[in-house]
Amino acid sequence: MRGSDMAVSRLHKSLPSVGALVAFEAAARHLSITQAARELGLTQAAVSRKVRGLEDDLGVTLFRRLHRAMRLTSEGERLQAAVSGGLHRIAETAGYLRQQGSAAQISVSTSIAFATFWLMPRIPKFRAAYPDIELRITAFDPYVDPGHDGVDAAIRYGSGNWPGLRTQRLFDEEIFPVCSPGYLSEHPELSDVDALKQQTLLHLDVAYHSWIDWGTWFREMGEQPPPGRRGLQFNTYTLLIQAATAGQGVALGWRHLVDDFLDAGALIRPLDASLHSQGAYYVVRPDNSETPPEVETFTDWVLREAEASGDGEPG
């Protein structure tokens, strides 16, 4: 037998039962068999047996058992110092290893529409490429602030000028009217902006200061918008697009959110008029702390996906 094997064999033979050491450590810390049993989820008799078995194994008395009390002997104090330090180091190391072995988690926030129509269809690709990173996706209208809401990263639309946030541009946006093929069949006159004013328009009722609504769109096209908000109003863009695909009216299509519907033929562009917005989509992170590597991984992946869409910022 090699020297190292002999040393391990001697160590194995000289070590008391780990269960007995754990029971002794708890009893020594509490100076109470009852409290040790409660902490360990054992009966008092089981803890007493383990402690007495340890005393028999070592050939020393570890506790002086007094009337309604117990005290450590000098041998017990020496063993307590060794066992307590050893068990704590083992527990700390085990906790560290569990943390290292578990999947990294990141929290990502964006609008309900962007999460539904752009991000979620791409998530399977991220999971396939990075199976050890767990994503927690939260969708809010309006946006949350990554600097104050416990979010690791967010994707939002706007000017990109948000104090306290580190921003990276994903892509610009193009906005144009969309409707279902069935709606256009029922309204063949819908071929120009003047005819558009007479249609059932689908409105998004949100408080985004940067969101482009029908009034803004018409004015940017050099036209007066229809009086009031004729048509239907919705509080989420997902409901609005669902109504558009069901033939209930004409919606403003944000290209990156409706591309899949256009490709599938569920929505069409009844006229060529479109508006290139001044804002853009950005991936943002808090600027007041070091970015964890898994957040960097997600950010880099989002930027690559944006570039792959054909108009993202080059990496």
From TrEMBL:
GO terms for molecular function: DNA-binding transcription factor activity; sequence-specific DNA binding. GO terms for biological process: DNA-templated transcription. Gene3D superfamilies: Periplasmic binding protein-like II, Winged helix-like DNA-binding domain superfamily/Winged helix DNA-binding domain. Residues 16-73 form the HTH lysR-type domain. Keywords: DNA-binding, Transcription, Transcription regulation. Belongs to the LysR transcriptional regulatory family. This is Transcriptional regulator GcvA.
